[in-house]
Amino acid sequence: MHTDLKSLRYFATLADTLSFTVAANKLGMTQPALSIAMQRLEERVGVELLRRTSRHVILTPAGEAYARGAREILALVDQVERTTAEVASGQEGLCRIGFVQSASFDVVPPILRSVQDLAPRVRLQLSEVTSIDQLRQLIDGQLDIGLVRQAVHSFADLSLTLVHEQRMVAALPATHKLAANSSLQLSALRSEVFLMVPDQRSPALNARVRAACEAAGYRPRASLEAVEMATILSFVGEGLGVALLPANCRRFADRTVSLIDLEDANDHLNLPLYLAHRKVERDLTVRRIIDIALRSLSKLYPRQSASLP
């Protein structure tokens, strides 16, 4: 027994109207054609679904059950078709976004707000991942968008857009002799112990810290590592060392820490952030979220965005 969707629609419409005349008009067909279609449906099902009177149509108990099932099936089919169309047009689907820890403070939230406003039916899957691992996962298809600190040109299949560049600041204990300064030279921290994030966690940040210190004439002496920047700030506040951190860490610093601008004309102290994605992206949902993210960040950081070759 095979019943097609057309027959289900015919029967559901008739069950709703209980009139061959009204149902036929709604379906855009003649009354005799609808009557024949219902007779054939009953023959396929093998039970009486409705009783005809001179004025009305009455559903049998079996017809009532069949009508409920028909409505559920038709509603499901309609939902599947709508969902398919929305996914195909980029209105619905999944987008997986990776980001480095420091981007979670002031870069990721505006992207999420924009997606909620402009693509509310798109599901976002967020992961905090190191820059190099994000780039690998983009190539492997495990991520769709990355917010990374490293522009690695060996990943030729990826497109990277510079969306933001922020200056690093020096984090000193509030009791430090230089804590009252509004700015300082990096060379003034030559004798200090540096607190750093583990290399496997944030290799791009550490590479810039080391390069900046070397440009100032010394290698930083690092004896303590902590995964979270908030933890590093806490350790700095306890007098366990100093740190170079992105300027947006100010929101986590309390009165035990002084965050001081650095005077050095040193490009290593500028910490870039790139939005990375595959150059060839076939998923319309992902392409839409990439566009929303880039537009959101260009408004947040005007005149900073630039695509890398």
Straight-line N-to-C gap: 61 Å
Secondary-structure element pattern, one letter each? HHHEEHEHHEHEEEEHEHEEEHE
Globular, elongated, flat, extended or rod-shaped: what is the shape?
rod-shaped
Described by strand count, sense and barrel closure, the largest sheet is: 9 strands, mixed
Low-confidence stretches: none
What gyration radius follows from the Cα positions, in whole Å?
Answer: 32 Å
The third-level CATH topology of the largest domain is D-Maltodextrin-Binding Protein, domain 2
Integer tally of domains: 3
GO molecular function, one term: DNA-binding transcription factor activity
Family: Belongs to the LysR transcriptional regulatory family.
InterPro entries: LysR_HTH_N, LysR_subst-bd, WH-like_DNA-bd_sf, WH_DNA-bd_sf
Keywords: DNA-binding, Transcription, Transcription regulation
Structure notes:
With 309 residues, the protein is of the alpha/beta class. The protein has three domains: 5-89, Winged helix-like DNA-binding domain superfamily/Winged helix DNA-binding domain (Arc Repressor Mutant, subunit A, Orthogonal Bundle); 93-163 and 273-301, Periplasmic binding protein-like II (D-Maltodextrin-Binding Protein, domain 2), CATH 3.40.190.10; 164-270, D-Maltodextrin-Binding Protein, domain 2 (3-Layer(aba) Sandwich), CATH 3.40.190.10. It has ten helices and 13 strands. The protein has helices spanning 5-17, 20-27, 31-45, 61-88, 103-106, 108-118, 131-140, 203-215, 229-237, 284-300, and strands spanning 50-52, 57-59, 93-99, 122-128, 145-148, 158-173, 183-184, 193-196, 221-225, 243-246, 257-262, 270-278, 306-307. The strands form three sheets. Strands 3, 4, 5, 6, 7, 10, 11, 12 and 13 form a nine-stranded mixed beta sheet that branches. A two-stranded antiparallel sheet has the order 1-2. Strands 8-9 form a two-stranded parallel ribbon. A hairpin with a 4-residue loop joins strand 1 (50-52) and strand 2. The longest helix has 28 residues, at 61-88. The chain starts with a helix and ends with a strand. The model has no long low-confidence stretch (mean pLDDT 89).
